[in-house]
Amino acid sequence: MTSKKIGMALIALVAVLLLAAPAMAAAYGTTITKEATVYTGESGLDISRATGGATVLGWYAAGSNPKSDAPSAVITISDLANFYVSPDVFSGKTGAWYNQSGTTIANATFYVEKPSLSVSLFDNDTLKDITNQKAITNAKVAIRVNSNLDALFDTTKRLGGGTAGIDVYVETPDGATLTGLYNGTGSVKLSPVRPDNTLYWVGTKHNAYEPVWVLDQDLYKAGTYKVYASSNVNAMKDNLGTVTGVTKSAIGTLLIDKDTVSITADKETVVRNNDFTVSVEGAPKTHYFVWISGTNSYNNETNTAPKFLPNQDSVSYLVMDNLTNTVYKGTTITVGNDVPTQPANLVQFWSVDAETGSDGKITIGLTTDGNTKDAVYTIRAQKVTGYNTLNSQLYDTVKVKVEKGSVTITASGDGSYYLGEEVTLSGTNTDTNDVYMFITGPNLPSNGGSLLAPQTAIHTVGAANNETHETVKTDDTWSYKWDTSNIPLDAGTYTIYVVSGNVDKSGLTTVKYDTVSIVIKKPFVTATTSASTVAKGDKLYIRGTAEGNPTQGVGIWVLGKNYWNGADKTNIPTSAMVTETVNDDGSFEYEMGTGITQNLAAGQYFVVVQHPMYNGVFDVDTVANSNPVEVANTVGAVTNNQFYIWGDGKLQGSDAAEALIDAINSPDIDDTYYKLTFLVEEPWIRINSIGDHYVGDQFTLTGTTNLAVGDDIIVEVTSSSFAPTQKTQSGEFSGVSSTIQVVEGTTYNEWSMDVDASTFKPDEYIVKAEAIEADATATTTFNVLKGTTPTTAPTTAPTTGPTTAPTVAPTEQPTPKPTASPGFGALIALIGLGAVAALVLRKD
């Protein structure tokens, strides 16, 4: 060895193996030749042939080159004839060790490995690993030793022979330890085992599968057996101790059970249209026929039996060839005549071949639907012993009851609806995959009519074009939105049926069903104006309620002298009437803004609010692209109800309103209406009489107006002597101003402003009240005197109203619908008498 290598070797680990090795147990192959394999824990080895007498050995870590690099570890051996493979020295340094005594590194002297040991158990029939699993009495079992100890018994590398080997043991449920097993003809000794490969079969074949343990029920009673292997060759276990996986394998168990079969169900009772499972437990990796017994009279359309789910792991449908020849009771009774008649494709839905797993168990899924007959079913599992052969003794049965489900229905809201509303019907169905609905009530078919055509009796079989049908969701719920627009029903109480099959009322005994009662009401509309009298320039609101969910909204017709609110739209004459959207709560609001009322002439105006009713269509409407704008019946042929509402030949005010109402009252029109009136006046403000006051008085200025409630009025009180002054004059004056709002009064709307005259100078004062939005102004005067307020009240009280009374404002008065030609004629007569009344009328 070069001086460089020697120098580097001094840095490496140096260990001296003592001659005094631990005491040896049974030995085998203790004379080690060159390049043999030794195992940590072995002792009493003669390695002199392997090292060639050299006592210094080196080990090189992975990636090192023994011919050029310094060793990673170096040991000096004191006694080559009694060598101990110490785990303290060789742990983590497995692999080749080289002679370090010469100058040239040749081949490895020997290899060091850590022992590895385990056992496995196999079933003779299935060749499956059944370690820690179950085997059935009389089954055949093979034992395999899995280790890297085969080099321990390599007689070409390790000389000297011996009696030692790996010992295999079987421990009974009672704790006795067996060193031999019955293989069907005699006893097989389990020890010693000297593997010549890493996967070594215990027995005579060694390199091939061989059953050595026949689980004879007279020799081996049911229970759990423990199987393990142990190695103390060359004192390996004595030196290392009992280390699982090293000197002793992990324990492998085998549960020996009697050959039985059992079948259980996860549910005793199943509501049809749901799934359930059965579990078969028997021998591991064994085939069992499982079928629905006693169902030969059932069919595949109605009154069917539960079916096995397809495409299950280790489960396959049985074809009729198997079933018609498979005897299951040891007589001529076969599986084929115990299940329903096969369908056209010859695959049975009611019988399967199921193979258990290594644990002897398998779970099988079954399904039911709306056609599954409600009954108690017997499900049978029987062991297959050969082609078309079942073991007449190894079977078990379980009973499962399939019963009808239930159907429920509820209706949204409070159960009372206006025609035209959408009603949500919903509920559950645990019986079938579909629900069917029909309705009964006054003058409807006794066995039920369609929800969409109530006067037509529903069909009892097949897919009828007038049936109302809905598919049930996976969570057993269903929902149907019933639009009552255009449904020909009178007001009244009705019953809606939901059934699990397509039958009418006469077939309810064959299905599950439920009912819900509903009340149908006719839609209507009511309305009012925000004020019976509106001053020009004030806003006016038409507010009301339209029941029945009119999706088109309501029509708003406002008519007066030379006025129709539709003409306010920019695309006349092509536009239709004015409509207003109805909110979810049935309310609506139509605004006539200040820009509209400002330009209205003073006088009476007529309002008709039109409801489209059941069909959701305005059957009286303006004719598109007509010029002049024409109003006509849009249901069918144009009738004499037509008239012009704008342009040449148009009807004015009350005449237009009368013609519109006549058109809506036509027998072929389902629309209804509500009518009312309001007055438009020139805006005015009046100041009530004030009288004289004294300096220090506190009093209130009041007045009346036809301005709308909430309108703003500026009230100014100024001294009449207020005028431009010279620079040398004081210019002192008194007064006050404020912006106040109009409030609702008894006869007219009112306004008021408080005045504190404590800072006023004695003088004449001017009061001016002026509307901010409208064009209206009023003025008056009063005096503020010196001194104090007299203790005696004045003999004449100030006037509380204007000297000239204005025209009496109109009030709403409902008018019953006349027998013929209803309209606004009575109102016009009242106007001639100087009174204006708001008409309130709606179509019944």
Automatic annotation (TrEMBL):
Keywords: Membrane, Signal, Transmembrane, Transmembrane helix. The chain crosses the membrane at residues 823-841. Residues 35-238 form the DUF3821 domain. One of its GO terms (cellular component) is S-layer. Residues 788-812 have a biased composition (Low complexity). It holds the Pfam family PGF-CTERM. The keyword Ribonucleoprotein does not apply. It comes from Methanoplanus endosymbiosus. Residues 822-843 form the PGF-CTERM archaeal protein-sorting signal domain. This is DUF3821 domain-containing protein. Residues 785-820 are annotated as: Disordered. The keyword Transmembrane helix applies.
